[in-house]
Specification:
single chain; mainly alpha; Rossmann fold; two-stranded parallel ribbon; binds nicotinamide-adenine-dinucleotide
Length: 115
């Protein structure tokens, strides 16, 4: 519940013939999804890293372009849920992290692709 938009989108696109580049902080999770896509002869590659690190969005885009030559579609879903807030997390700190990942990466990722 309240998770899995990226995973579900990757599966739908792969089933329709898209080559899917998967990024996540969690390599194990990303590799598991790539394996699932390959199980129905879909094409997927894992490019893990932190989209909040300044140099990473451009590196991610370059790596995908090197592999497949073009990018048709960006699913920009890296994020976190309010339900991940631990009881003793300070609300403002949590809110800043939430807003940063949800909003800042929309700009850095789309900017990297359009360069
Ligand atoms: N699933 C829902 O019902 C729902 C509803 C409303 C809003 N949202 C929001 O949509 C976004 C995506 O939802 P989802 O269901 O795909 O969530 P999800 O938890 O399934 O996937 C988000 C992924 O982003 C990754 N991630 C977090 N920070 C990262 C970083 N800095 N670099 C790279 N990867 C990072 C996480 O490891 C996680 O696997 C979230 O921000 C969520 O709050 C989801």
């Amino acid at each position: 519940m309240y998770e899995g938009i990226g995973r579900a989108t990757a599966l739908v696109l792969a089933r329709r013939g898209a080559k899917v580049a998967i990024n996540d902080l969690d390599r194990e999770k990303a590799e598991k999804l790539a394996k699932e896509i390959r199980s129905f002869q879909g094409e997927a590659e894992v490019f893990c890293g932190n989209v909040l690190e300044e140099a990473f969005p451009q590196l991610l885009v370059s790596s995908v372009l090197q592999k497949w030559g073009k990018i048709n579609c960006l699913i920009n879903n890296a994020g976190m849920s309010i339900f991940q807030r631990e009881g003793n997390d300070e609300i403002l700190t949590f809110w800043e992290a939430f807003v940063t990942i949800v909003q800042f990466t929309k700009w850095t990722m789309t900017n990297s692709i359009s360069l």
